[in-house]
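Render this sequence as a predicted structure.
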Amino acid sequence: MDTFERIASGQQDRLEVERLRDVAGSLRQLVALLDWLSEAGADLVARDVGLDTRTSEGQRTAALLREIAAWEPERPRGRPGLASHAPETARRIAELRDQGLSLNAIAAALNAEHVPTPRGGAEWRASSVQAALGYRRPPPPPPGAPRHKAPKHDKPPKRPKP
């Protein structure tokens, strides 16, 4: 059982890290982590920046970080025209990608739902999903969420060097 699972189950009340960047790569991710920990009744201690949310100073810092994160506008995802011309399709694609689906799996889902492509075509391909997403990678899963494992592909055996 890892630290996040122990926190989620109530067996642990603190996440301690040496470097804050090891648990959050952006302000948005950090605020999401702080919110998740708060909901779980746990605190964050990051030694490199002296953050300890068990203290009143740490609580004020967390509140300040949440406030600053709220200033940042939500970045639009994907092709700009898709959101304005087909907002339901744009939301559906973003939702499927956030669930960890591959580009091929999203294309298959859209085809099964008979969703027309942005150019009016009948068949989605991984490349058209990628273009609709604006070539963005999916966000990392929130702490404690099960990670989707990529399917293993059979690799040809390595040839011995002569």
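Summary. Residues 150-154 have pLDDT under 50 and may be disordered. The CA atoms of residues 49 and 158 lie 45 Å apart.
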